[in-house]
Amino acid sequence: MHRFVLAVLRRDLTLATRRRGDWLIAQFFFVMVASLFPLGVGPEPAMLARIGPGVLWVAATLASLLSLSRLFADDHRDGSLEHMVLSPEPTVLLVLGKSLAHWLIYGIPLLLVAPVLGIQFNLSWEAIWVLELSLLLGTPILSLLGGVGAALTLGLRGGGVLLTLLILPLYVPALIFGAGAVDGVMAGTGAEAHLSLLGAFFVLSLMIAPWIASAALRVSLE
Amino acid sequence: MNLYTYASPANFYRLAGKLIPWFAWGAGILTVWGLYISFFMAPTDFQQGEAYRIIFIHVPAAWMSMFIYMVMAFWGAIGLAFNTRLSFMMARALAPTGAMFTFVALWTGALWGKPMWGAWWVWDARLTSELILLFLYIGIIALWAAIDDIRRGDRAGSLLTLIGAINVPIIYFSVKWWNTLHQGSTINLMKAPSMAKIMLLGMLVLAIAAWFYTIAVALVRVRRVILERERQTEWVKAILEKEN
Amino acid sequence: MSDFLLSVHDLACARGDRLLFKGMNFSLKTGELLLVQGGNGQGKTSLLRLLTGLARPEAGEVRWCGALIGRQRETFHAAMVYLGHANGVKDDLNPVENLRFAEGLQGRTFDAPRAVATLERLGLSRCLDLPCRVLSFGQRRRVALASLLLAGAVLWILDEPLTGLDVHAVTLMEGLIRDHLTAGGMVVATTHQALNLEGVNVQRLLVGNVAIPELAVN
Amino acid sequence: MEWASWSDFWNMGGYGLYIWGSYGVTVAGVLIEVILLKRASAETRRSLKRMQQWEEQ
Q1: B117-120 own/partner pairs: CB under 8 Å, 24+ apart
Q2: How confident is the model at residue C214 (pLDDT cuts 50, 70, 90)?
Q3: How many domains does chain C have?
Q4: CB contacts, 8 Å: B39 with chain D
Q5: pLDDT digits over C124-175, tens only?
């Protein structure tokens, strides 16, 4: 079982290293969306610090969505998805492995870029630290829930836009808890409550999303 | 004739045809009664003046938006578990009405909010989760529209409804909690003490009217879908010929 | 190999609201080839997808050794390998890597010398470290065939396996199928091309909406 | 009875715009849904009959 998840993971990571362009685009998108906000709302440091956590979280959400439509689509196009689903191993583990790979490829780099953007937004070091923690807990949720959307919209015309429409509402709790944690530490009320709720939402997503995504995958391949 | 017989599309088509007028008339009569209560029997509220009369539609619409979503999730789950075509048809038939009531709840909420709170829109837990519920309805309807294959569409839509159903309560409580942190006091739409019995009765009557309306509309829609999906069968051909 | 049995009972298949076929029955024993024939859009591919368990039948059932395939997914998928229109070959990987990941995804350990030997047997010895992107269509099809051979499954389900193959490769494929059947395997295949299958136990199945003739055994 | 006159009724203690705006949009929503549904049903029957006649020929 673990071996299978590792096999999926190793495969997707290898494929990602062969196509580094896609990976960079998502990171640049994150930086660019976040950098547009100061241009739009003005450079006042206090205000930037006030909106920073929310902006960075929304930008991270969108950056993660950008790559999601291809989570299964590439493998669907060349037929390898069918082979994977026809493996004796459970489809749920396949979905888990692919979501994990998506998180490692597109989620973790967001964590590396976020501190730089945090400085741009005049966040304190403590706030940046909490931002990192919240992204660490929150970005896997985006990959897990996104897997459901990617499976549902597999092979549809305009699937990418539809995916966004389906999945963004489901992200709301992650956004609230994630940005709230940073807000909390800046307002002095502490981040623990937000972070533990975010953690709970992560565990819940981990338990439920792969099952629904694997059911959706089988429906879409039918 | 047992329940199972009614689960066949042909029998359900006939049964639905008989039921629709009852529900439609029921909805009409109850609406008239409910409106009479809300405009002529319910007294002026000493705090909110006449503006509170909006809740006679706002609250039933908000109830309906949630109930219809739950019923859709229920039919979707039944369909996924037992592979019954009719339950998927019911789920599909309910969605547009659910979205309509969600929109009405938002609209009336805004029109009530303006005189009461001085703002068309506040990011309180109820309005925000209602807004996200509308997004979910739109997403589900869009997914159905995008998938040509009937079987795939049925199942995919139901899976999305289910994951949404798990998420809606979480969204509600997260927004509520977020709200208490951001605004000192939460605004409560229904201050319990001032709720007179007659107001509750008015809302209930209109809510039941809305239910009857929803059932009638959903049945009409299901009948249409049955005709389309069963067009190859003899009984549909017979029905169409009779109408010619 | 011990005896295996793939059987189909009263199978019906619909696409959209169009019924492709219904009341289909057949059974396939160890050492037999089922050749599925019929025009375009008559449901050949749909039938194969039903047999793999990717698609669910409108009515009827598919059984493997007497039990429903859905009830023994793991056993059945371990015993079956499917090659569809798409090769399932990743363009960014070379043939050996493709086989390595394919094996890993099927839950098996990768035997590198055997994989290389198989690729060489299929005439790919000069492309072993090239990304599949630069290979021709026929060469990529051969990579897919290599993964089929490595799988060591009893039941092969092949959708147009000869598409894009040259004469030499077609002969090779015929040999592979014959070897597989002699070794006690089973094959279900669709093809538009003529196959030289002397000495092979062939069942022919015509798929179509028009009255399905009972199986004409060659 | 709460209302002295019709104009009193329409005025709703100064909240007429909000109240009638709410009820009006609700009625419009229901009417639009019913009309669209009626049209769609008629269209379905028409197209099915057309298809049937086409098949009979």
Answers
A1: B117/B187
A2: very low
A3: 1
A4: 2, 9
A5: 888 888 888 888 888 888 898 898 888 888 899 998 888 878 888 888 888 8
Query: For residue C16, which residues of chain B lie inside 8 Å, CB to CB?
Result: 148-150
Determine how many CB atoms are found less than 10 A away from the CB of residue B18.
Answer: 9
d(CA B23, CA C103): 60
Residue A115: domain span:
2-221
**Do A150 and A143 form a contact (C-beta atoms < 8 A)?**
no
Note the pTM of the prediction, 2 decimals. Answer: 0.87
Residue percentage of chain A with pLDDT more than 90: 54
Q: Which amino acid is at A115?
A: P
C185 φ/ψ angles, rounded to the nearest 5 degrees: -90, 180
Counts of helices then strands in chain A (DSSP H, E)? 10, 0
Gap between the Cα atoms of D43 and B164, Å rounded: 32
In this structure, the number of other CB atoms found within 10 A of the CB of residue C212 comes to 17
Cα separation, D13 vs B145, in Å, equals 45
Q: Are A150 and A212 in contact (CB under 8 A)?
A: no
Phi, psi of C34 (to 5 degrees): -105, 115
The one-letter amino acid code at A155 reads G
Q: A204 vs chain C: nearest CA distance in angstroms?
A: 27
Domain housing C44: 5-217
B:D CB pairs within 8 Å: 86
On chain B, the residues whose CB falls within 8 A of the CB of D26 are 57, 61, 104, 107-108
Q: How far, CA to CA in Å, does A92 sit from each of A16, A87, A211, A217? A: 22, 11, 6, 10
Please tell me if residue A91 touches chain B, with a CB cutoff of 8 Å: no
Check B224 against D44: CB less than 8 A apart.
yes
Residue C212: pLDDT band by 50, 70, 90 thresholds? Answer: very low
Rounded-to-integer distance, Cα C188 and Cα C161, Å: 11
Give residue B74's identity as a one-letter amino acid code. F
Q: Chain A, 139-168: which have a CB under 8 Å from a chain B CB? A: 145, 148, 152-153, 156-159, 162, 165-166, 168
Task: Report CA dihedral (C143, C147, C148, C151) to the nearest 10 degrees.
Answer: 170
Question: Do residues C139 and C127 lie in contact, with contact meaning Cβ atoms separated by under 8 Å?
Answer: yes
Inspect the interface and report whether the beta carbons of A87 and C91 lie closer than 8 Å. Answer: no
Q: What is the CATH number of the domain that holds C51?
A: 3.40.50.300
Helix (H), strand (E) at residue C159: strand C155-159
User: CA C73 from chain center: how many Å?
Assistant: 17
